[in-house]
Amino acid sequence: MSIRPTDSPLHRRTVLQLFLSTGLGLSLAACGGGSDDQDKDQAPALLKTRADAAVASGLVGVVLGLVTPKASSVAVAGRRRLGQSTPVDAQDRFAIGSNTKAMTSAAIVSLAERGGPALSLPVSQVFTGAHPAYAQVTLADLLHHRGGLPAFNGSGPEEDTFLAALAADTRPLPTTLIARRAYFARWLLAQPPAAGVVPGRDFLYSNAGYTVAAAMLEVRTGRTFDALFDEALVQPLGLQGSWRSEVPGDRDVLWGHEGLPNTLAVIEATEEALATKDWLDIRGPAGQWACTGAAYAQWLRWHVLALRGERTPLPQAYVRDLRAASDNRYVWGWQTAATPKRVLLSHAGHVAGFMAEVVVDRGGDFAIFGMSNTGHFAADGSSWVLKTIDEALVDVLKQQSIAL
Fold first, then answer.
1. Residues whose CB falls within 8 Å of the CB of residue 207, separated by 6 or more in sequence, listed in order
2. Is 233 within 8 Å of 107 (Cβ atoms)?
3. Is residue 2 part of a domain?
4. 352 and 36 in contact (C-beta within 8 Å)?
5. pLDDT reading at 402 higher than 90
6. How many CB atoms lie within 10 A of CB 158?
7. Final residue of a domain: which of 177, 193, 223?
8. What CA–CA distance (Å, rounded) separates 100 from 97?
9. Which of 25, 43, 21, 69 is nearest to 341 (CA)?
10. Region 89-101: what's the mean pLDDT?
């Protein structure tokens, strides 16, 4: 038995590696462009054209969005499910996979600024019995993927190891989400760190790190991470969305699809997935948020404004660190990369049947994103889905005369 992977290891394929190689190039000169009103008028039609083209290239459904300091534009195309004719609706919520991590980070930083658990809180002060190697690993380290914890994304044996430990445990197993998350954290922190990795120092992309971070908050506050997330992020930023299980349910109207263009399969609940659903769902803070294109555009618009120096509901330390991060760093759920003209923040997400990616100009000139109910990763880390989305986003930036 294995737990379905939620993401591809970040080091195998950062979004900018493909995004910057799809044709925009680093020598594209700024062409001046029209007025803000003209850009606002052109963007919706351009996004719709590119969304339709992406569906024609094989995506089942897609949302594309562009955010500037003056306006946000979103377009949808495609179908909710293969074999059915119902089109994607603007109110459909797409799973954004590991793009959830920036939201989780912002919520935890916000809670710390409001007097909640400090970002410097060591895991050893929350979970007794942790391996000595984790003694100085902090809440912030986990969110920066420097906790030394294994990936838990399908790239190694750790999922099966954990499920074997569950099967061998003769005690009654926890029956609530909070208790399951704490159980997992205690078990994981008792294990030795990944080979060759120094916890608190070395980068190792880990969904488990975000799960443990959420568990730390729950233990310290006695409240569910869902409630804390809503209070610290969703309400202040005026976002709309929901936690979506990796295992499809009866209430789902938007279905995920996985595979190559001519062999796409609908992701449906299997007996194996249903048997592990309760444990899959503990990883929500690492990658199980779902939202509409408009809601994600709203999330990004706060970033564009904050990065330009305007006051927003985003936590101050979160914004400060994003503005100060050097090239090729992972900070609060974002990967940085410097081009000759800009520093860009990016992330890609993958949960079974869905993919999402985003690129934000750190100067606050723009943010651009794509989400699809189509997923795929090849063994080498490449993805025709992300390539299709990249080509659409690149073309939008070209047409808007935005240079990288």
1. 6, 7, 98, 151, 152, 153, 283, 286, 287
2. yes
3. no
4. no
5. no
6. 20
7. 223
8. 6
9. 25
10. 97
Mean pLDDT confidence for 256-271 = 94
- Bridge partners of residue 368, in order along the sequence: 66, 359
What's the rounded Cα separation, in Å, for the pair 402 and 344?
Answer: 13
CA distance 347 to 14: 7
Residue 95 belongs to a domain = yes
Please provide the size of the chain in residues: 404
Give the residue numbers spanning the domain of 206: 117-223
Provide the pairing of β-strand 265-266 with 289-291.
unpaired
pLDDT score at 40: 52
Structure tokens at 357: 């990616």
Domain count, the chain: 2
Does 217 share its domain with 237?
A: no
CA angle, residues 135, 139, 144, in degrees to nearest 5: 105
Q: pLDDT over 70 for what percent of the chain?
A: 90
For residues 30 and 77, which has the higher predicted lDDT (pLDDT)? 77
**What CATH number does the domain containing 169 carry?**
1.20.58
**Two structure tokens written together for 192:** 């030795």
Nearest to 78, CA basis, from 93, 62, 64:
62
- In SS3 terms, 199-222 reads as CCCCCCCCHHHHHHHHHHHHHHHC
- State whether 259 and 394 are in the same domain: yes
For the whole model, what pTM was predicted? 0.92
